[in-house]
């Protein structure tokens, strides 16, 4: 089934300079989206009902359920009463590993770190990205953020969604996905990139949200060496990025940004003296 509309029109009263005017506004849709593997639901997210195939593939990859898109034998979008169920069938060995993982789970899963059964798994060991050869100039960082902004069609229409994009210094913004949830937008991007055969190590992932540890984990698992965010990271996100060899750039607004880890991937101009 095709994705549902991402927006709805709502009536509203706009008050401008003390004057009330009736009218309408486009708002982003938000519906429950289940992610199911082998007939069993792994997680239910509140999400924008667009790019659901990308969402399913990206979630499976970023949550280490599948190793590659080839592990997903089939994917079907099934409409439910009030949302959608992304039903995926995995290769037999991958499905068996997931079933074993689920049997160990002590309680229900939630948003963000989904299907996590222990503190140790929440702070899981990540692939090492120190060897990723990638260099961005300050102009590349600025252009990546600017390009993401102009490609956010749903945000332009509604003003109420997050986005994640993949930027290559030589080719520009190659892929953008949007969603009401920041994790969902990143999962959709990861899925879209995997389905299109884009190598994450060739460019940077850019996000419109703050950087929590799970956003770093997803970016590292995707394979990039550079994550750029318009907001700030958490302290744990910085420590995790450093350990994994990920260059983390935050508070990227206009020509200004801050490099928190692995500065070697960003060419720098003159450094101001610090007293």
Describe this structure in words.
The chain is α/β, with parallel strands linked by helices and 275 residues long. The chain has two domains: 31-122, Ubiquitin-like (UB roll) (Roll), CATH 3.10.20; 138-265, 3-Layer(aba) Sandwich (Cytidine Deaminase, domain 2), CATH 3.40.140. It contains eight helices and twelve strands. The protein has a six-stranded mixed beta sheet. A four-stranded mixed beta sheet has the order 4-3-6-5. The longest helix has 15 residues, at 182-196. Residues 105-112 have low confidence and may be disordered.
Q: Quick summary of this structure?
A:
By secondary structure, the protein is an alpha/beta fold.
Ends distance = 62 Å
Number of helices: 8
- Overall number of structural domains: 2
CATH fold field value of the largest domain: Cytidine Deaminase, domain 2
What class, by secondary structure content? Answer: alpha/beta
Strand order of the largest sheet: 8-7-9-10-11-12
Task: Round the mean pLDDT to the nearest integer and report it.
Answer: 90
The H-and-E topology, N to C, reads as EEEEHEEHHHHEEHEHEHEE
């Amino acid at each position: 089934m095709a994705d549902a509309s991402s927006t709805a029109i709502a009536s509203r009263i706009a008050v401008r300079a003390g004057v009330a005017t009736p009218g309408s506004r486009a708002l982003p849709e938000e519906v429950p989206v289940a992610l199911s593997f082998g007939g069993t639901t792994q997680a239910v997210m509140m999400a924008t009902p667009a790019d659901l195939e990308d969402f399913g593939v990206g979630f499976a990859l970023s949550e280490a359920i599948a190793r590659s898109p080839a592990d997903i034998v089939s994917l079907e979008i099934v409409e439910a009463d009030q949302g959608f169920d992304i039903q995926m069938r995995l290769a037999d060995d991958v499905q068996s590993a997931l079933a074993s993982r689920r049997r160990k789970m002590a309680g229900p899963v939630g948003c963000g770190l989904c299907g996590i059964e222990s503190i140790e798994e929440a702070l899981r060991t990540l692939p090492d990205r120190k060897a990723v050869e990638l260099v961005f100039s300050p102009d590349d960082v600025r252009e990546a953020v600017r390009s993401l902004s102009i490609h956010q069609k749903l945000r332009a229409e509604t003003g109420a969604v997050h986005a994640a994009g993949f930027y290559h210094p030589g080719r520009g913004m190659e892929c953008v996905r949007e969603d009401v949830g920041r994790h969902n937008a990143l999962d959709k991007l990861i899925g879209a990139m995997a389905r299109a055969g884009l190598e994450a190590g060739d460019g940077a992932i850019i996000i419109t949200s703050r950087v929590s540890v799970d956003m770093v984990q997803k970016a590292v698992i995707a394979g990039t060496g550079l994550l750029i965010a318009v907001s700030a990271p958490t302290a744990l996100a910085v420590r995790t990025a450093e350990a994994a060899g990920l260059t983390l750039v935050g508070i990227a607004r206009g020509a200004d940004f801050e490099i928190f880890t692995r500065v070697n991937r960003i060419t720098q101009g003159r450094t101001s003296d610090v007293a």
